[in-house]
TrEMBL record, chain A:
Required for correct functioning of the GINS complex, a complex that plays an essential role in the initiation of DNA replication, and progression of DNA replication forks. GINS complex is a core component of CDC45-MCM-GINS (CMG) helicase, the molecular machine that unwinds template DNA during replication, and around which the replisome is built. CDD domains: GINS_A_psf2, GINS_B_Psf2. GO terms for biological process: DNA replication; double-strand break repair via break-induced replication. The keyword Transport does not apply. Pfam families: PSF2_N, Sld5. This is DNA replication complex GINS protein PSF2. Residues 65-167 form the GINS subunit domain. It is found in: Nucleus. GO terms for cellular component: CMG complex; GINS complex. It comes from the Eukaryota. Keywords: DNA replication, Nucleus. Residues 2-61 form the DNA replication complex GINS protein PSF2 N-terminal domain. Gene3D superfamilies: 1.20.58.1020, 3.40.5.50.
TrEMBL record, chain B:
This is CDC45-like protein. Its main location: nucleus. One of its GO terms (cellular component) is DNA replication preinitiation complex. The keyword Cell cycle applies. The lineage of its organism: Eukaryota, Metazoa, Chordata, Craniata, Vertebrata.
Length: 186, 569
């Protein structure tokens, strides 16, 4: 999977906006949206929120978890625990990137939020790497990890699977005569 | 006709239609175009952008697009010539013209159906009233009622033969008509004699954005750049510049107030525009201070840096401020912080001693990200250099698109390459000015000064473009006024010619008004060039939207000049 596909899936999440135009309820295949009244908050998917923001038709309200104190707590929790802490939103990384790129003027203390989210991400990825390393070196058969987000899984997927395939090939070639090991050039 | 409500009569009309944007090649037009494009993107209006460099381009573009489009928006072109006659459009084409060129042609002003002018009516226009220049044919038959002859020959009480009375009345009418026509010619001559510039087009479109409450900081910045372009290229008077800066300052404070009133400050990536009372040194924050002082018109002319004495004075000036040469010659960003802190005040104090009272000018600066800081004049120089870059294999529209791109915040490499080109251009201008003054290339022809750049002059290719040549012309005149002792010559205008196209054998000729403190920047060379070309039947091309810039065949140069001398003496 491509990171941009994950971002595309993240755009389905809802976020609150305050429009400055009025429109009746619209009926889309994915669900109903609206009605839009100037000054009244309404929940819309992120893709629509960003489009309206770029056309200067709304103001985006940052999600509840995108707050400096809350993120600091989550970061402290993440650093203390060895396992993965519960995550503020299943798409926290993508939403932070999208909202801070297009609507940073609507989000207070945007720079600090960016730093905090990056810290949380770094801690989790480090734990993931450690966990994958111990999985391979201890030749485990299966593992269970809670509270991982799709973006983190996607980041490690290619490497982990390729390395497991490589290990399998090497291991199967050690067995004499079991199968004609084919060495393919990567 | 003039538009009063720009939202109802212009924007709401074009918002649901496909529009053709015909944009002239100057920075103000580029900024106005960017603002309008931003508005069109918000409302998803379909438009086609066509850059035009002159009247021929405009006519070709119009012919290509007249089948598909009904609405045309012309930016910085089309107001000063009878547009309907030049383009011969169909009856349902509508033109919205936002142009800074004045005087606006009277036909464009008084046409009610097809031409809409996006110009404020109080903008220093001086359009003659309708009745003074147009006369309906019915008035002819109106006969006696309109003809009060000053001699007071009242219809006599005596009964004469009806025929004689009618003949007398007809003679009176014809005489009145001739007088009216003579007065009309005089009024039109006075009105169209001088060419000058009005309020920036970018400002007009920013006000439209403001009325629609869709104005962003980006649009505000583009409006500031458009206004600064008019000042850098000396198109408007100082008073008008200061007035317009005050208007912009109100908008800037409104934007800054809106965003900084929470205790949570904005992200560093957001754009911040600030009012600066900054130095009149071109590109000094992206160059070294020394280079900037040597290559800015104001300081170079006041110190007379083409003389040895001038160089010494410059060293004295730097010593007077206590700035070591090593610091001053390195990149501005690497100068010591202690020097940079009070730089502006220190320079202002010292320059007052050396007779430069106006070294500081009111302008705006923008700041986004950690290291991106630009003044409005920096942007103007960079974009102008990109617009008129003389690299091979680049057509005029490529340059236009590149220059347009450099105005967006996301294209910083293009902007930096523009700044490098601008540095080369400024250095070339200074060297040319220095060599022209030292070799006495400027000669007085009587009613004007004249200078011709030979073909072998270094960087002469840069000066085949109208904006660059006009800038050179203005700097040269300022330098000449500072260096000559002849009092009469100081009040003369300057005409400059440079080779434009060596294969076709043509030169580009530019005329600028005389240099003075209270100059109103009104240029009469447009009409003068036309008349001189007619009288000598020289092969000229009056293609540029500024009528004081023409193209001429090299062989016709001398007879054209002689005709001008006779015309203007």
């Amino acid at each position: 999977m491509d990171p941009s596909e994950v971002e595309f899936l993240a755009e389905k999440e809802t976020v609150k906006i305050i429009p400055n135009f009025s429109l009746d309820k619209i009926y889309l295949i994915g669900g109903d949206l609206g009605p839009f009244n100037p000054g009244l908050p309404v929940d819309v998917p992120v893709w629509l929120a960003l489009n309206l923001k770029q056309r200067q038709k709304c103001r985006i309200v940052p999600p509840a978890w995108m707050d400096v104190e809350k993120l600091e707590e989550i970061r402290e929790l993440e650093r203390k625990e060895d396992t993965f802490a519960p995550v503020p939103s299943p798409y926290y990384m993508e939403l932070t990137k999208l909202l801070l790129n297009y609507a940073s003027d609507n989000i207070p203390k945007a720079d600090e939020i960016r730093t905090l989210v990056k810290d949380i991400w770094d801690t989790r990825i480090a734990k993931l790497r450690l966990s994958a390393d111990s999985f391979i070196s201890q030749l485990e058969a299966h593992a269970k990890l809670d509270n991982l987000t799709l973006m983190e899984i996607n980041t490690i997927r290619a490497f982990l699977l390729d390395s497991l395939n490589c290990m399998y090939k090497l291991r199967s070639n050690l067995q004499p005569g079991s199968s004609k090991g084919q060495f393919t050039d990567y | 006709m003039f538009i009063t409500d720009i939202r109802k009569e212009f924007y709401e009309v074009v918002a649901n239609q496909r529009v053709a944007l015909l944009v002239a090649s100057d920075i103000d037009a580029l900024c106005a175009c960017k603002i309008l494009q931003g508005l069109f993107h918000c409302d998803q209006v379909q438009y086609t952008l066509v850059p035009v460099t002159g009247w021929q381009d405009l006519s070709t573009a119009f012919l290509e697009h007249k089948e598909q489009f009904r609405y045309f928006v012309l930016i910085n072109c089309g107001a000063n010539v009878d547009l309907l006659e030049t383009l011969q459009p169909d009856d349902d084409s509508v033109f919205f013209i936002c142009d800074t060129h004045r005087p606006v042609d009277v036909v464009n002003v008084y046409n009610d159906s097809q031409i809409k002018l996006l110009i404020k009516q109080d903008d220093d226009l001086g359009v003659p009233p309708y009745d003074d220049i147009f006369r309906d044919e019915d008035d002819e038959e109106g006969g006696d009622s309109g003809n009060e002859s000053d001699e007071g020959s009242e219809p006599s009480g005596k009964r004469r033969r009806f025929d004689e009375g009618a003949v007398e009345r007809r003679i009176d009418r014809q005489r009145a008509k001739r007088e009216w026509e003579a007065r009309r010619r005089e009024i039109l001559f006075d009105y169209e004699q001088y060419e000058y510039h009005g309020t920036s087009a970018a400002l007009m479109f920013f006000e439209l954005a403001w009325v629609l409450t869709k104005d962003t900081k980006d649009m505000l910045w583009w409006a500031v750049i458009g206004l600064t372009d008019q000042w850098v290229h000396d198109k408007i008077t100082h008073m008008k510049y200061v007035t317009d800066i005050a208007t912009m300052q109100r908008h800037v404070s409104r934007h800054n107030h809106r965003n900084e009133d929470e205790e949570n400050s904005l992200s560093i990536d957001c754009m911040r525009i600030s009012f600066e009372y900054d130095l009149r040194l071109a590109l000094y924050q992206h160059w070294s201070l020394y280079e900037s002082i040597c290559n800015s018109c104001y300081t170079s002319c006041n110190f007379k840096l083409w003389t040895l004495n001038g160089q010494k004075k410059l060293q004295e000036f730097l010593a007077d401020m206590g700035l070591p040469l090593k610091q001053v010659k390195q990149k501005f960003n690497s100068m010591d912080m202690s020097i940079k802190e009070n730089l502006r005040d220190v320079i202002e104090e010292s320059s007052n001693k050396y007779g430069m009272k106006d070294i500081r000018i009111q302008t705006f600066g923008v700041h986004f990200g950690f290291k991106n800081r630009f003044l409005a004049s920096d942007m103007v120089h960079a974009t102008a250099a990109l617009l008129e870059s003389t690299e091979k294999d680049e057509s005029a529209s490529d340059n236009f698109i590149k220059a347009l791109d450099s105005l967006s915040r996301s294209n910083l490499e293009r902007l930096h390459s523009g700044i490098d080109l601008a540095k080369k251009k400024l250095m070339a201008i200074q060297q040319t000015v220095a060599s022209c003054i030292c070799t006495n290339l400027i000669v007085s022809q009587g009613p004007f000064l004249y200078c011709y750049l030979m073909e072998g002059t270094p960087d002469v290719k840069l000066f085949s473009k109208p904006m660059a040549l006009t800038l050179l012309c203005k700097y040269l005149l300022k330098a000449f006024v500072h260096s000559t002792r002849n009092k009469r010559c100081k009040l003369l205008p300057l005409i400059m010619a440079a080779p434009k196209d060596v294969e076709k054998g043509s030169v580009i000729v530019v005329g600028i008004p005389p240099e003075s403190e209270t100059s109103d920047k009104k240029n009469f060379f447009g009409r003068a060039f036309e008349k001189a070309a007619e009288s000598t039947s020289s092969r000229t091309l009056h293609d540029n939207f500024d009528t004081s810039i023409i193209e001429l065949k090299t062989e016709d140069r001398s007879k054209f000049l002689d005709a001008l001398i006779t015309l203007l003496s």
